Known about the structure:
DNA polymerase, domain 1, 3 domains, 4-stranded antiparallel β-sheet, 13 helices, globular, Rev_trsase/Diguanyl_cyclase, cytoplasm, transferase
Amino acid sequence: MDSDLPEMRQRKIIHIDMDAFFASVEQRDHPELRGKPVAVGGGSERGVVAAASYEARKYGVHSAMPSVTAKRKCPDLIFVRHRFDVYKQVSRQIRDIFEDYTPLVEPLSLDEAYLDVTENRKGMASATEIAEEIRARIWETTQLTASAGVSYNKFLAKLASDQNKPNGLFVIKPAMGPVFAASLPVKKFHGIGPATAAKMNRLGLYTGEDIRNQTLDFLEQHFGVSGRYYYGISRGIDHRQVRPDRERKSIGAENTFFTDTTDFDTAWGFLDPLIDKVWRYVEANDIKGRTVTLKVKFSDFRIITRSRSGLVPVMSKPELTGYVRALLEGVFPVSKGIRLLGVTLSSLGERAENETEQLSLSL
């Protein structure tokens, strides 16, 4: 164990990830869609793909892609409207299966979760056997497939679940962990987005091994507090615990531009898919948020945020869109190019069933 990172008890972690969840539910419930390229989301000119079936993914269609781009890549693409009430019901069935094995379940979204099965309700010694049993029960209960990753920490378990998709299982044992992490391109690391991967590449860091060859001081100098996390995962080390009661305080999305912009219309065009992503999470999880925040990073890396809070929650995507646009208008004109924009909805809580009216935010 590396002397710069504390040693902790080795655990047995499973990451379960449903395969093309929204699209698979639609294909399950509508037999005429099976075997065909399907996209869940708006097929309008300004629509965005929420999920894509594996048949659609073969054409390069993926979530968060503008619908017009998806249709261009796959002319036979079939768009279907989302049914979040159904997805939530199926997700609850899956969650009930997880809880038969362990109370330590940390959902990441409707279709994926971490499970700590070091000590489990079945008294089973093998995490791999538990993962196999859970996948079989999910199929029996929902007629949907799930992929699973098994390892000794969250980072490696999540990477493992992506190795044999769809409908696969992959195990990274303790002896494999450091070697597996070292061999991966940095863009494959969970938690390293395109912008950070590009920065790492500029520093000569292309693989986990390249990161591992750097000192902790070097990584913290270039990546701040995240440097310590990168230092650990490049060695197959991740001490984060599975947190079943994790309370999400905000939901946000951001994107770094390849070219800085000072043009309002260009900046606004980049915000549309971010707003869509945030609102899909709100709908899927039946939550509400009162505070809308716009994040702007300029070409000199200066960051500003602009927020507005209301007495009652934002109740529709058009409302959220209007608030974000007003915040962006308040930033312009700009003297420096914008390199990143982000949208966050906070002050979250569950949506009340009788909550039907909305007061306007004071802008």
